[in-house]
Amino acid sequence: MELITHADIAAVASAFHQPRVLTHDLVGRLAESNAAARALRALGFRVTREDPFPNDGGHAILLVDLNGLPADRLLAECDASTIRAGGHITGLYRGIRIVVQEDLPC
Fold first, then answer.
1. Which domain of life is it from (predicted)?
2. How far apart are CA 41 and CA 35, in angstroms?
């Protein structure tokens, strides 16, 4: 058996998630994103993806599945929202950006 030392192991940067130092600001962003996701789940929606640190540097983004519920129920909870042609819905919920893709009749 061979002993593995730290010198034998090379750090490999992830292509998906760049390394970050968890500062108070970043921990706060994670907490806000998680709180919004929990609240949406409690309302019956399904959060399919979370991006607490989007590349544009803006607020966190949650991708939401309506889970068979009406879009109006989600929009009533949002501070601001838009519905575009094709059913693309975006909104601001508790300071977190949400994105919904729903097949709405044209």
1. Bacteria
2. 10
Return the CATH number of the domain spanning residue range 24-101: 3.30.460
- What's the pLDDT score for residue 98? 95
What's the rounded Cα separation, in Å, for the pair 20 and 3? 30
Distance CA 20, CA 46 (A): 27
Q: What is the pTM of this model?
A: 0.72
Q: How confident is the model at residue 87 (pLDDT cuts 50, 70, 90)?
A: confident
Q: Which among 81, 83, 82, 86 has a CA at the least distance from the CA of 105?
A: 86
Structure tokens belonging to residue 4:
């593995």
Closest CA relative to residue 53, chosen from 19, 78, 86, 77: 19
Mode of pairing for the β-strands spanning 88-93 and 80-84: antiparallel
